[in-house]
Structure formats: structure tokens, C-alpha cells
Design brief:
Elements lengths: L1 H21 L1 H41 L2 E4 L3 H4 L24 E16 L2 E10 L12 E5 L9 E5 H7 L6 E7 L5 E13 L3 H4 L2 E5 H8 L6 E6 L5 H11 L6 E4 L5 H39 L1 H9 L4 H37 L1 E3 L9 E3 L5 H27 L3 H6 L3
Parallel strand pairs: 3-8, 5-7
Antiparallel strand pairs: 1-9, 1-10, 2-3, 2-6, 2-9, 4-7, 5-8, 6-7, 11-12
Helix pairs in contact: 1-10, 2-8, 2-10, 2-11, 8-11, 10-11
Length: 413
């Protein structure tokens, strides 16, 4: 049974291919329309994929890490009193497990206050960090001037680009950090500006100061850290790491939070771009469907006499319907494969050349764009061509199968 079905399908596909080659101009035009839609969709989707990947990795490697471990309720209630949620200094309880490995575990102490230099005073949001442990977490941080904390002295600080510009601080300047301690008193420390930096998020750069964690502890008069930031070997291992940490750590003492729950701006951007991609997909599908339906309808009109002759010789209406649908199937398969192949080739060429881009909203640095056509996106482009073409062939095929034999035989082209 199956062999007969396969044999019949192959025969019908061969006949459909021969019919398509009989009208080369029309077939090439149809292929060009479908391939153009597929290429446009994949290049646009590939660029958005690359932008989201760069944004994701930039946020992970400059601010969030892959996983953050805190006291329960810190991200919900810690804004008003962060030092009620302090962690200890024993990071050895964070261990790797298959399939993930850990690149670094970095303690951080969050604090806020005022930074002063000469007559300028401005508020800041600070992080006390371990300079050595933070090196793997600095892939998304660009040092604009001076040096980072790992190459600076003990009483040093790095300022976000926007904050440094607002306060007028440059590398080598001495600034005073003032803050309200955990006990409610006011304390101050003097630090030297080691350098300025930029991250993918401009809003962060406008308020951020990073200092060695011992300086932050001395300023706030506390011990420990408000969070432990874990950087994994691969972002794809985040879910596995979260599950392993939650199983290993007591839930009444620790809360394990993946980066995706903290990256609000990134999540909103993904949602926005997803809506745009779906709109582009729908628009291209409509254009391809209308174009291919019109092209196949013209083919039906030109072959009216042939259809009438076939029906007069005993070919059933279902056979005529199947024949034209098979032409849509063959056209969709060829166009899908060719379109995806062209898009992959163009994507590689464009990525080698690069796409110079200005700073997007919310970011401070421009970048050179690339095209990242994933396997899932390529399959989506293929099915866009195939399914749309098959659907577009149904109406012309139905019209061909409903022709009156006598009228079709008398038709003159």
C-alpha cells in the first residue's frame, strides 16, 4: 500500500515538474517572487536574532551574570533595606554539575549614595565587586578611559560614562562617596577614579559606580554581599544550573534567580521584535500567496483546452485537482530550498562585511551588525515558502477541476 502511494506520488511530482518547465518564464517569475520573500524574511529575522543575542550576552556579561543567588525576597523587598538580606562569604557551596560548568562566582554588594568632586554632587547606584572574580563577567563592559578595577589600586572606582560626564570626573581624580550606612548613620570614603566604562544599557551607565567590595563594605559598615553572581560556560545551560542550585541550596536561606527574570528591558525588546517579525512574516505570506495564486490561475486559463482533453479521456476531477496542487508542492519545495540557500549565502557575505549601526535607543555605543540565521529561523523560512505556495495553489486547482468538459474543449487561447 505504502509503496503504491509513494510510487504514485513520485510520478505525480515528476509530471508536475514537467508541467512547470513547459512555461519557464512564468515558473522563474514565481520562483523569484517566493525566493525574494524568503530571503527578505530570513535576512530581517537573522539581523534581529543577532541584535537580541548581542543584547542578551552584553547584559549577562556586564550586569546580571547567568544566575544570581540572594536571600529569599531580596529582589522583592530589598530596595528599602538591602542589608537585611546579606549573604555570607562562603562561595564554595556553589558547585558545577553536568551539563554546565561555572566560569566564576562573584560576590556583589549593592549600595547607593552621593558622589562629589569639587562643587559637583550627584546621586549614584553603586556595586561593590571582587575585581578578580569579575574579570570573566566584564565581557560586555567597554573601558572608555583609564583602566578597570582589576588593574587599579584598592581605593579606586570606575564610573559609568554618563555619570562621569555629569559629575565632570576623569581618571586620576579623587572623588568622595557619601552614603547612609546600614545602621542609619552617614559615612564617606575617598576613592580615585581608575577609569570610565560603558555597557549595552545607557540608563545603567548614567548612574553606575563600581568599587572593590571591601571599599563598599567599609562605606556601608557591613560584611558579606547582597548577591552572588554566577557566570556559566554557556547561556543555554542556565535552566539546568538553576534547577541544580535550587535542589542543592536550602530554599529558606537562598533564592536562585535566572538572568531572564531580571532583564526587563531585554524581555520587552524580545516581545517587541517578535511582534515585528510576525507582522513581516504575515505580510510576506500574503504577498506570496496572492502572487502565486494569480500566476497559477493564468496557467489554468492557458491550459483550459488541455484540461478539457484530459477530462474527456477519463481523468477525474480529483486527478486534475491533485495535479495542480502537486505543481504548487514542487514549486514550494524548490523555492523554499533555493530561497533558504540564497539567504544563508547572503547572510555570510553581509556578516563578513558588517553593518555599521548607530547607537539604538537606551544604549550609548554603536555597533557593527551581523546576520544570524538560526536553524529554527531557516526552517521557518522554508515552511513560509512551501505552505504559502501550496495554499495559494488550492483555489486555481479547484477552478481547474470544476471546468465543464465541453466548454473547456471549445476554449481558444
Amino acid at each position: 500500500m505504502w509503496r503504491g502511494f509513494v510510487r504514485t506520488s513520485v510520478q505525480q511530482a515528476r509530471v508536475a515538474a514537467l508541467n512547470l518547465t513547459r512555461h519557464r518564464r512564468r515558473t522563474l517569475l514565481a520562483l523569484a517572487i517566493i525566493c525574494g520573500g524568503v530571503v527578505s524574511f530570513l535576512l530581517a529575522g537573522g539581523f534581529i536574532n543577532w541584535v537580541l543575542w548581542g543584547m542578551r550576552e552584553g547584559v549577562i556579561q556586564s550586569q546580571l551574570g547567568h544566575v544570581q543567588i540572594t536571600r529569599p525576597g531580596y529582589f522583592r523587598d530589598g530596595t528599602s533595606d538591602p542589608y537585611r538580606f546579606l549573604l555570607g562569604n562562603d562561595l564554595s557551596i556553589i558547585r558545577p554539575a553536568p551539563p554546565f560548568d561555572i566560569r566564576t562566582v562573584a560576590p556583589r554588594l549593592a549600595f547607593t549614595g552621593l558622589v562629589s568632586i569639587n562643587d559637583a554632587t550627584i546621586s549614584f547606584v553603586g556595586e561593590g565587586v571582587d575585581p578578580k572574580a569579575e574579570i570573566p563577567l566584564s565581557g560586555g563592559i567597554t573601558v572608555l578611559s583609564g583602566s578597570d578595577l582589576a588593574a587599579a589600586g584598592a581605593d579606586s572606582a570606575t564610573l559609568g560614562e554618563g555619570l562621569a560626564a555629569n559629575v565632570g570626573a576623569r581618571p586620576g581624580d579623587a572623588v568622595v562617596l557619601m552614603a547612609t550606612t546600614a545602621s542609619g548613620s552617614v559615612n564617606a570614603v575617598e576613592v580615585t577614579v581608575a577609569g570610565t566604562f560603558a555597557t549595552p544599557v545607557k540608563a545603567y551607565d548614567d548612574t553606575a559606580i563600581r568599587v572593590p567590595i571591601e571599599v563598599a563594605r567599609r562605606l556601608m559598615r557591613v560584611e558579606g554581599a547582597t548577591s552572588w553572581v554566577v557566570l556559566l560556560d554557556e547561556t543555554e545551560h542556565t535552566d539546568a544550573a538553576v534547577a541544580a542550585f535550587r535542589a542543592a541550596l536550602p530554599t529558606d536561606r537562598f533564592e536562585v534567580v535566572p538572568w531572564s527574570e531580571l532583564a526587563d528591558f531585554y524581555n520587552k525588546t524580545v516581545e517587541l521584535f517578535g511582534t515585528q517579525v510576525n507582522a513581516v512574516l504575515l505580510l510576506i505570506a500574503v504577498i506570496v500567496a496572492l502572487s502565486i495564486s494569480n500566476t497559477l490561475s493564468m496557467a489554468v486559463i492557458e491550459r483550459t483546452t488541455e484540461i478539457g482533453t484530459s477530462m474527456a479521456l477519463g481523468v477525474r476531477r480529483l486527478g486534475i485537482l491533485t495535479l495542480f496542487i502537486w505543481e504548487g508542492v514542487v514549486l514550494g519545495l524548490v523555492a523554499g530550498v533555493v530561497g533558504v540557500g540564497i539567504a544563508l549565502l547572503l547572510g555570510e557575505i553581509i556578516s563578513l562585511v558588517g553593518i555599521p549601526m548607530p547607537p539604538p535607543p537606551g544604549m550609548s555605543q554603536g555597533y557593527t551588525g551581523r546576520i544570524d540565521i538560526s536553524t529554527a529561523l531557516a526552517l521557518q523560512g522554508f515552511f513560509l515558502a512551501f505552505i504559502t505556495t501550496v495554499i495559494a495553489s488550492i483555489l486555481p486547482a479547484w477552478k481547474a477541476s470544476r471546468m465543464n468538459i465541453v466548454d473547456a474543449l471549445r476554449h481558444q487561447t
